[in-house]
Design brief:
alpha+beta, Hypothetical protein af1432, five-stranded antiparallel beta sheet, about 40% helix, about 15% strand
């Protein structure tokens, strides 16, 4: 029915459907309705873009409308930033705005003449805005599934993002999160979905400049190295948006109005676990889940949590681990042993066993939803308690006798690790620790074993040298199993020629801010072998079951002498490129 009466009836019909027919279902809305709450955000973006109205309508407004129709009210994450309804749309627009603000301080392309800058500035701005908007659009493909319903609440199937916007199907929808999703896999998907968001003329404009188009494609594919400055703008803007949402208020507002630190610590820890940044349930992992408890290697977990929060731009994060533990313990987020937060436990699975210092978290605190919890560890975690008189009591926790087989599963080899024939675990590493002669320094005092042909001990000044501190960190990490070796995500691999340290990744793991100095000082120790071209970096070919890739790193030709460790056999999937 056309005319005012038809419009009135349509409005009345929509109001009657305002109550969802299915619990937690969201209505499918048109783009104008979805964008209405973001009018001020769009106005700010338009001002930053600074193009005529006709250009705005043709190249920008159509993009935002298509994006809103595609993502509807999907959240940006399950339990991290922008986790509520409409989070993905709000986050996308925030990242666009922040990226454009950052872009105003850059002359693009770098080093170009004034005439060229003026000619290409609008195209670089368009590339920045669209790359920022598209950076998370792969999540409905990789991280989420959307169940569709008709007006009466009857299921009509799953939404297939490859068929087009969500707005084309159904009247209601519910979001289900994929449990065993691959970390950051969503970053590779946007190029395949561009056709639903950008108009043809927008793609043609980007493709008209080879330099811009190459950087833009790399940016929306998650290839930060090739995207260069465009990726820097998007990543920095993304961090600003994430930090603003997680603290509960923009960074310029008072701390009193922000989310409590304890809540941000819990959110950050849950995110690291869900993204497999803290791997679980295998030798060399960061933690192990029993029925009701999650045991996390204390230093590794707290260092990763602090780095994660700092990268998000969050303020007020303690720089010391004891302060972080106090905050977690004070708010009842972890289970203490007596009045201490740190437990000593013996972790055992198969023929692998390791004594570690860990934190104990109630599983329900991290994952209130039982379906979101990771599988149970197929092994034991045995708290070791000192008793009066020097006796040791072991409280054994064995998951296998209390859980069903499906809850005890480990992730399969092919899913976890295309390199090795095992489960992607850090292989056993033996420590050579001969007793020092009287007056000699212990191996740990000299950086974890011999550092050269001499047996000289270090002076106190050497303890502050970042190269020697890196060597100690490397040895302790390998000996304790907290640093992975020969796995798909490892920064360390044994090769026929020695030990390969993936660079600069391993040094960034050691010290994110001062990694370059640590690498330079480590090279001064002259434990590594230089290439025939007199450079420090070797290149190795990686051959997996489905693909080939390349990694670069520093080669230590005599690692057992340098580290005092007996290392596992060479990774069979690595071969040196001549």
């Amino acid at each position: 029915m056309a005319g005012p009466m038809g419009a009135l009836l349509n409005l009345w019909g929509r109001k009657r459907q305002s109550a969802p027919p299915v619990e937690e279902a969201l209505p499918v809305l048109d783009s104008a309705t979805l964008l209405h709450p973001h009018r001020s955000q769009l106005a700010a973006i338009r001002q930053l873009v600074g193009v005529p109205r006709a250009h705005w309508e043709a190249f920008y407004a159509t993009v935002f409308e298509a994006y809103a129709g595609f993502v509807q009210q999907l959240p940006a994450s399950e339990a991290h930033h922008h986790a509520g309804p409409g989070g993905m749309l709000a986050h996308g627009l925030e990242v666009v705005r922040e990226a454009l603000k950052l872009r105003r301080g850059r002359l693009l392309p770098s080093g170009a003449a004034a005439e060229e800058l003026a000619t290409r500035q609008d195209l670089w701005t368009y590339a920045t805005a669209t790359a920022a908007l598209l950076h998370d659009i792969g999540k409905p493909v990789t991280d989420q599934r959307v169940r569709l319903y008709d007006r009466q609440g009857r299921e009509i199937g799953w939404w297939d993002p490859w068929d087009g916007p969500l707005s084309l199907d159904g009247n209601w929808y519910r979001v289900v999160f994929v449990r065993e999703r691959r970390h950051r896999f969503h970053e590779q998907v946007p190029p395949l979905l561009v056709r639903f968001i950008l108009p043809q003329r927008g793609l043609g404009w980007l493709a008209s400049d080879a330099e811009v188009f190459a950087a833009w494609l790399a940016a929306i594919s998650g290839d930060a190295d090739r995207a260069g400055v465009l990726s820097e703008l998007v990543l920095q803007a993304d961090g600003l948006s994430v930090a603003s949402d997680l603290v509960g208020a923009p960074t310029r507002m008072s701390l009193a109005k922000r989310k409590p630190l304890s809540a941000r610590l819990l959110t950050g820890l849950r995110y690291l676990l869900d993204q497999d940044a803290l791997p679980l349930n295998r030798p060399g992992a960061a933690g192990w889940r029993l029925d009701d408890d999650l045991w996390l290697v204390s230093k590794r977990a707290l260092d990763s949590l602090r780095e994660h929060l700092n990268q998000e731009g969050q303020e007020g994060v303690p720089t010391r681990n004891d302060r972080l533990m106090d905050e977690l313990q004070q708010h009842g987020l972890l289970t203490p042993t007596g009045d201490r937060a740190v437990w000593t436990v013996l972790v055992t699975t198969g023929d692998w066993s390791q004594q570690l210092t860990v934190l104990r978290f109630p599983v329900q605190t991290l994952w209130p939803d039982p379906d979101a919890r990771p599988p149970v560890f197929e092994g034991t975690v045995t708290p070791v308690v000192d008793k009066p008189g020097g006796a040791v009591q072991e409280e054994r926790q064995d998951s296998s006798a209390q859980t069903s087989p499906q809850d005890q599963r480990l992730e399969t080899t092919n899913e976890r690790d295309p390199y090795t024939g095992g489960v992607g675990d850090s292989p056993m590493i033996a420590v050579d620790s001969p007793s020092p002669a009287p007056g000699d320094a212990s191996p740990m005092a000299t950086g974890g074993g011999p550092i050269s042909g001499s047996q000289e001990t270090d002076t106190p000044a050497d303890d502050d040298d970042p190269g020697r501190r890196f060597l100690v960190w490397l040895r302790e990490g390998l000996a304790s199993g907290t640093l992975a070796i020969n796995t798909v995500h490892a920064r360390i691999h044994t090769v026929p020629e020695g030990l390969l340290l993936v660079s600069p990744g391993i040094f960034k793991d050691f010290d994110r801010e001062n990694w370059s100095l640590a690498q330079k000082r480590f090279q001064k120790l002259k434990l590594h072998q230089r290439t025939p071209q007199a450079t420090n970096i070797w290149s190795y070919q990686v051959k997996g079951e489905r693909k080939q890739s390349r990694i670069n790193g520093i080669l230590i030709p005599e690692p057992q002498q340098a580290l005092g460790l007996r290392l596992p056999p060479p990774n069979p999937h690595l071969s040196r490129k001549e």
